[in-house]
User: Which sequence fits this backbone?
């Protein structure tokens, strides 16, 4: 039944609609702080559902077929952002078992032992043994909060959300300084340095037939940078990956990815000028022949049951994405 509905909503040819799914991590076992993130068992089920319902294609191939008006019915792609080590260790074997292609978008500044700011916050909250994390005097603009309670799992989840929200759109140097200050206040001796991919793992993904795409160097909010800073992040990330895999990198993912908030038409123009052939956003919805290939939307259902997961995917095939108008580009 779901295949039939998907055929109606996403027929082949000129009227085809492409679904692109986005993931970040696949944990070996369920993470209590992030129960909605898939673990290995759930990702295995998701892959089985997708293989049964959709025609899963490599992203670059799907884009070419979409532009040519020859995309098959029920076309879909799988993507991962950021470059976590579990993409290689956990997700890759599952993808290979189901014979599914995937594109991995990697922020190169965190390879070989780096850590993104949000993961620093997650891990210091996870490891903090204090009943509450003191935040007074740090200028985090958390109304009425001098400390964040850490008494239970729900309080730790809330603390992580508040801290990420307070730091996400700050300039990277300020963000780093605040992370270091919070680490000191949490009394945590050391944070993990094995969360992200190593260069040899990137090469292994590429050798396995997976696509490698760029995601800048340090995962900044590109809309907050001037043109020269944005260009350096975009071009240097591309160059880093080309040096690692020995092949041209033609796909790009905007960090955070919300149109107008996280990237602009200026950003889009820089990505195009840098030699990329397409880019993906995080706007929900589908792509069709009219979609700007430098703003391909992506979406992933969060449901744990196959039926609800599939129904939400069908719902996304009805959603027109809110993308930037490109007349100013």
Assistant:
């Amino acid at each position: 039944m779901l295949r039939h509905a998907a055929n109606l909503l996403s027929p082949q040819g000129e009227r085809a609609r492409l679904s692109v799914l986005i993931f970040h991590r696949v944990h070996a076992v369920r993470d209590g702080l992030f129960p909605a993130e898939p673990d290995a068992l759930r990702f295995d089920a998701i892959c089985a559902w997708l293989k049964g319902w959709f025609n899963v294609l490599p992203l670059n191939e799907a884009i070419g077929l979409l532009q040519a008006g020859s995309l098959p019915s029920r076309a879909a792609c799988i993507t991962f952002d950021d470059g976590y080590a579990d993409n290689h260790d956990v997700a890759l074997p599952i993808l290979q078992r189901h014979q599914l292609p995937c594109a991995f978008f990697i922020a190169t500044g965190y390879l070989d032992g780096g850590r993104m700011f949000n993961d620093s916050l997650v891990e210091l909250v996870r490891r903090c043994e204090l009943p509450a994390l003191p935040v007074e005097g740090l200028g985090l603009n958390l109304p009425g909060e001098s400390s964040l309670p850490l008494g239970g799992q729900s309080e730790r989840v809330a603390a992580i959300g508040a801290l990420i929200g307070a730091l996400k759109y700050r300039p990277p140097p300020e963000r780093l300084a605040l992370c270091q200050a919070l680490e000191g206040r949490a009394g945590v001796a050391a944070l993990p340095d094995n969360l992200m991919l190593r260069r040899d793992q990137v090469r292994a993904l590429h050798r396995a037939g997976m696509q490698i795409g760029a995601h800048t160097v340090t995962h900044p909010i590109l809309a907050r940078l001037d043109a020269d800073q944005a260009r350096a992040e975009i071009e240097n990330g591309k160059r880093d990956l080309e040096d690692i895999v020995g092949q041209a990198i033609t796909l790009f993912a905007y960090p955070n990815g919300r149109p107008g908030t996280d990237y602009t038409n200026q950003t889009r123009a820089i990505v195009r000028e840098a030699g990329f052939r397409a880019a993906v956003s995080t706007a929900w919805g589908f792509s069709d022949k009219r979609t700007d290939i430098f703003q391909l939307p992506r979406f992933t259902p969060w449901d744990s049951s196959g039926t609800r997961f599939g129904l939400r995917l069908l719902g996304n095939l009805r959603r027109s994405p809110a993308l930037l108008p490109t007349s100013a580009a």
